[in-house]
Amino acid sequence: MSAKKGVFITFEGPDGSGKTTQSGLLVQHLRRQGYDVFHTREPGGTSLAEFLRGVLLRPDANISPVTELLLYSAARAQHTVELIKPALSSGKVVVCERYTDATVAYQGYGRGLELKLIATLNGIATGGLKPDLTIILDIPVRNGLKRVARGRATDRLENEKLSFHEKVRKGYMTISKKDGKRVKIVLSKGSILKIQDRIKWYVESMLKRAQYSI
Ligand SMILES: Nc1ncnc2c1ncn2[C@@H]1O[C@H](COP(=O)(O)OP(=O)(O)O)[C@@H](O)[C@H]1O
Ligand SMILES: [Mg+2]
Q1: Residue 124 is part of a domain; what is its CATH number?
Q2: Cys-Cys with 38: which of 77, 87, 176, 202 at CB 3.0–4.6 Å?
Q3: Could you tell me the sign of the dihedral formed by the alpha carbons of 20, 76, 95, 206, in that order?
Q4: Backbone angles phi, psi at 131, to 5 degrees
Q5: In this structure, how many other beta carbons lie within 10 angstroms of the beta carbon of residue 134?
Q6: How far is the CA of 25 from the centre of ligand 1 (A)?
Q7: Does residue 132 form part of some domain?
Q8: How many domains are there within the chain?
Q9: Does pTM top 0.85 for this prediction?
Q10: Does 214 reside within a domain?
């Protein structure tokens, strides 16, 4: 695989924090400016990973924390090698909803699995690929879950207790503190367009820093 030429942006945050809404708007904005953008999500993207997504999110599935970690990692490995790396090699902007930080937040801080084990599996699944910019959309847990419940039936992870979601949210905060250069917290409060403006600001400064041009 040739060297990475594109840029890699990930969206993270608890359920209902606006990842799908905000990443979609960002992709539209970048395309209007002439960027070649590949928009994708985890778990999913490839046919194998979409199949695993179905398994992972089924409300009635009985999955142990370690099994959950391995299935997410398997889905990520395939997604990375089949779609993300080729898109980056061809110079695209890749926008992905959830990536390695979601595993740290949900399986690490949420389920309590060892962070070292998660870092190892993330390294294997990504082959060392790291996002250039990660936007964590932050929202109080109850507000996020309320937004989700309005839209559609909830999945296995969304059905977890409030205390689990609180741990995930705190986990995301810790991640941003540990890696503040890459990871930016954006408060998912107020109008969708105001939130989008804050995101664009971070994206534009990263593109400038990376000296990335169309
Ligand atoms: N700023 C906002 N204010 C109010 N509702 C919002 C806002 N952003 C998104 N929503 C709504 O909240 C729900 C969850 O948003 P979504 O983008 O699907 O979140 P996620 O992908 O993080 O789960 C959707 O119905 C969406 O229309
Ligand atoms: Mg979503």
Answers
A1: 3.40.50.300
A2: 87
A3: positive
A4: -65, 150
A5: 25
A6: 12
A7: yes
A8: 1
A9: yes
A10: no
